[in-house]
Each structure stands twice: as C-alpha cells, then as structure tokens.
Amino acid sequence: MSREPGRPATGEPAAGAGEPGEPGEPLPPRPSIWLATAEEPAKPARSAARNGLDRERITEASVRLLDAEGLAKFSMRRLAGEMGVTAMSLYWYVDTKDDLLELALDAAFAELAGAGTEGGADDWRAELRALSAGYRALLVRHPWASALAGTYLNIGPHSMAFARRLRQVLARTGLGPERQQGAMEAVSQFVYGFGTAEGHYVERSREAGMTQDAYFRHAMGSIRRHPGLEGDFTEPGRLRAERGGHTVEEMRERDFATALDLLVAGIEAMVAREGVTGPAPGGPRPRLRPAGPGSRRWRPGPSAPG
Question: How far is the first Cα of the chain from the last one, in angstroms, to the nearest whole number?
C-alpha cells in the first residue's frame, strides 16, 4: 500500500508480518505522541530551510488556527493551506492529526509557565488561587483545549510541569499524602469545568455578534418568557445584585473567587480536623472511608490537569 513519506501505514499489517511477537509484526497505535518508543520508525530527516517548516512552527500555526476557527473545522489540509504548503509535507514532522493536536495542547499549557509565582513560596493559598486563575484563563483563551485535555492523556512536558506545581502547592497545605490527590482533583476539576463553561459562553457570544452582557440579557429574556421556566430564573437585574456584579464578567469573577474560597476553607477544615500535619512519623494515618455505592472515582492523571 502506498503512503505519504514519513507516515506509517495504518489498518494493514507490515509486509512479512507473522504471528504476534514475531519480527515484522506491526506496532499497535501508541496512546500518546509523548510515549513514542525506540521501536517506532524514526521520522526522515528534513531540513527546515528547504520549505521553512519545522515541528515548532507547525504547532504554533495549529494553535492559531484552532483559536481562530475551532476544533471542529481543524484539518491537516486546512492547516497546510493556511501555511502555504501541501498537506503531505506536514507528515514529515508528525505522523497523524492526533499527534499534532497533542502538540498544540501542550503548547497551550506552556503559557502557564509563570502562573502561581506571584503567590509566594510561604502562602499556599495565594499560590493555589494564582495557579487556578492561570488555568482558567488558558481554557477561556483556547476553548478547544478543554476538549483535547479530556480526549488525550495530556502528559506533555508543560502540562506535567503545571500538574507538579499544583501538587507541590497542595503538599504544603498540611493535608496528609492520601488526601492530596483528592484535593488536586477537587481544584483541577472545578477550574476545568468553570473555565470550559466560560470559554464556551465567550465563544457563543462572539459567534452571535453580541457582547457577553447583551447575550446574557437576550438569553435570560428568552428563558423567562418560556412556559414552565419563567419562575425558575431570577430577573437579570436582581440576579446581578445578588451575585455582586454589574456585568457578566464581574458576576463570574465573584463566583470563581467564592468557589475557590470554599475549596480553600474545605482544605483548612480537613487539616484542622485531622491535625496540622497528621500523626508523628511512623504513626497510623487517618483511614479513608470507602466510596459509597454507585460512586465514580475520576481517573487520576493530568488530564485537567491532575
């Protein structure tokens, strides 16, 4: 079967392939570009000077295209047209579109390199808030990132660096080691959900040609006129007063700050309940209660990240 240069054939065994484990057996698809192994064929050498391409430039162009047009419209052909090259030429640098999307996702996480540093090494609360704010802002700037973070393993170097920094902050809270992963999930999943919803709202307002406030008034007016829903939603002016803001963005800032305050207060309450840093070295740690019937534990890992 013919194939594009540098791109492995898929869906067809390699010539001479035998039973599993024999030489020539095709490699299974790797779960992530970051898990490329020595057994995989190396990409052919290609000079960037020849066509002006390299993996970094292709990744940067992918991020710009995703920001401009969204994930649904993204394709290798569309990217090639934007860069003024052929789609075939891109496959000298990545094997698949999935590989390129993983690279773009980690490039977005590179923007978090300085997040949290303003919190100070001695103030885990301020640093936790700063890291959370940075992650939220990333999801709003790049609405496509939340979908990719939930699809791929998200174990690129920048994503993992952010996850490690969040773990380091939580390790300074006084929570026992067996509680820290749960705290990380609570924080990361909250910010992931909040930032994803906010990003979609901003994008929807922009697509409608409206400001966020105009879109809010339009949506709330339509909802309140709908039979059966009019009593379930507060009048917009009263809602803004109750939530402490005159604009959608002000309401959202207050909501985000309040939710983070509740998470911080929960961590502090658990530390106080179980002791400042737990029992003496070698002593027993507090036992975790088993998950109740029907509970579902979120898969640990950096997908959100964490």
Answer: 41
